[in-house]
Amino acid sequence: MSDLYCNKAVMDLFKLDGRVALVTGGGQGLGEAMATALAQAGSAVAVIDINFSNATMVADKIKASGGNAIPVKCDVTQSDQVEAAFSDVARTFGRIDIAVNNAGITLSGPAEDMSDEDWKRIVDINLNGVFLCAREAGKHMIRQGTGGSIINTASMSGTIINKGFYLAGYCTTKAGVKHLTKALAVEWAKYGIRVNSISPGYMRTPLIAASLAHPEIVEEKMVNTTPLGRLGEPQDLAGPILFLASDASLFVTGHDLVVDGGHTAW
User: Fold this and answer.
1) Rounded CA gap, 28 and 120, in Å?
2) Edge-to-edge strands, sheet with 20-24
3) 63 close to 69: Cβ distance less than 8 angstroms
4) If we measure between CA atoms, which residue out of 253, 233, 230 comes closest to residue 37?
5) Could you tell me the maximum CA-CA distance found in the chain, to the nearest angstrom?
6) Which residues are catalytic?
């Protein structure tokens, strides 16, 4: 067997031709980057977002580059909307093979000042929303009987507490996502469904827009605490998400893939 053939076979593991993926929170930032990467690898992609204009913009970009994508509007905290959105994707493309449950928010401030409403909101979106979407993806994949890959967006903040920031709600919900991922991985392994999470570090996205307006905060609290010495870019998740979505990770489940420039290695 030639070296050229071996190399080609290995690279084929990462191809997603003929598969169908969906990405919640796909209308901007990390979600947009992951949806674009999946499409470039050959998958049809449903860009799901509560902001339909953002979802449409991303889907149009993918189509303009030769990919296959549709926009879908959905509030991930509403189970009826989640069910309808996933059914729409399955009806349009015939199946669901990959589900990236990425929609999330961050709220900062001292815990003693956090209102009941803010606490419930971040839990509802970051944790409940991930469960509702994972549950719906699981239902479709179990019915299909061909397995699948579910990827939940957690955060390095689910492993550590961000020094100098007040993120009790964010850290708590992301830790919950990591453990939910493990529970679902064990429960659905018998169906051939792999469930993993991805944990970004400090990334240059709208989620940290307030901090980006203060370069001194970015330098001191984010860049200087990251061994690689920079913020992550959304495109830094392209390779990791493709690995978890594809056959390259067929024996990987219940795993949290940290993409943080080494922050949690200190």
Assistant:
1) 24
2) 69-73, 44-49, 20-24, 98-101, 148-153, 193-200, 256-259
3) yes
4) 233
5) 65
6) 155, 170, 174
Q: How large is the C-alpha radius of gyration of the chain?
A: 18
Average pLDDT over residues 125-146: 98
Domain borders along the chain are 3-259
pTM over 0.70, yes/no: yes
Q: Which CATH architecture has domain 3-259?
A: 3-Layer(aba) Sandwich (3.40)
What confidence tens digit (pLDDT) does each residue in 63-121 have?
A: 999 999 999 999 999 999 999 999 999 999 999 999 999 999 999 999 999 999 999 99
Q: What is the pLDDT of residues 207-248, one digit of tens each?
A: 787 788 889 989 999 999 999 999 999 999 999 999 999 999
Q: Are the beta carbons of 143 and 97 closer than 8 angstroms? A: no
For tokens 């605490």, the residue is: 225
